[in-house]
Amino acid sequence: MKYHFAHLNKINVVIGQKITKGDVIGLMGRSGTKSVHLHFEIVKVFRGVTDYTRGLSRAKVLEYYENPYNTNWRSIAPFSHLGWDWLSDIGGGQLHPGIDINSGVGDSDLNTPIKSPINGVVYYANDDTNSGWGKHIFIDETNQGEQMSVIEELQKACAEKDQTIIARDKTIAELQSACLTKDSVVEDLTQKNALIGKDYKNAITDNVKLKKKLDILTNKPNNDLGANWSLLAWIKSTIKKINERK
């Protein structure tokens, strides 16, 4: 529904502005009419911002408008009496679709602050003098003020969630990197252990061969001097190779 405030002297809001209950949206005036007052109505079936309607049949008023007394209308402006009332007969079987609020006579009400009785968003704000409504405002009452707060909270929660996901992904990436580093270290150590094992086996083999040669040279000397010198040369070479492994 849309809440309509007409005959203002000044408009304090702009289209799209979020309104909180109690915000001053304008000042009471006489634009579009002869006497200072506020015309207030609640529109169920919106027919346009310039559709000036002084009165309709009872059936149409009930179809197009909500009873303004169903809202906190007393918070809109100070008052001591009403002009045309809700469903007042303004002549010719035409009934008034809203209420006219004022609290004094003459110009005493001029520039009285007009407060919004609802949370919402400004749908229309006309600062030009309309021939019927004068300067007037429509506020879209779908609790959008509250909805926008909820949306802002949801957006904040989503942003925090996104930050959590980013932090989680960073942690996962760091863990994956650590695992790759660990795997690389393990592979490197495995290769080194394999080489050490191979060298160890070779050393054992060389030691066995060396022992056999020494046994031959000690227990069964070869009468062939050249063969003995060749055996000694092999022994020296093997000993050097073993020392280099240490």
How many structural domains in the coordinates?
A: 2
Low-confidence stretches: none
Please give the radius of gyration in angstroms.
49 Å
Coarse shape: rod-shaped
Which percent band covers the strand fraction?
A: 15-25%
The tally of strands reads 12
What is the rounded distance between the termini? 94 Å
Largest sheet: 10 strands, antiparallel
Q: Structural class of the helix and strand makeup? A: alpha+beta
Helical residue percent? 40-55%
How many H/I helical runs?
3
What is the element string, with H for helices and E for strands?
EEEEHEEEEEEEEHH
Mean pLDDT, as a whole number? Answer: 80
Structure explained in plain terms:
- With 246 residues, the protein is α+β, with helices and mostly antiparallel strands.
- The protein has two domains: 2-142, no CATH class; 149-245.
- Helices cover 42% and strands 21% of the residues.
- It has helices at 58-64, 144-219, 225-245, and strands at 2-11, 18-19, 24-28, 38-43, 65-66, 81-82, 89-91, 94-95, 99-102, 113-115, 120-126, 135-140.
- Strands 1, 2, 3, 4, 5, 6, 9, 10, 11 and 12 form a ten-stranded antiparallel beta sheet that branches. Strands 7-8 form a two-stranded antiparallel sheet.
- Helix 2 runs antiparallel to helix 3.
- The longest helix is centred in the last third of the chain and has 76 residues, at 144-219.
- The radius of gyration is 49 Å and the shape is rod-shaped.
- The model has no long low-confidence stretch (mean pLDDT 80).
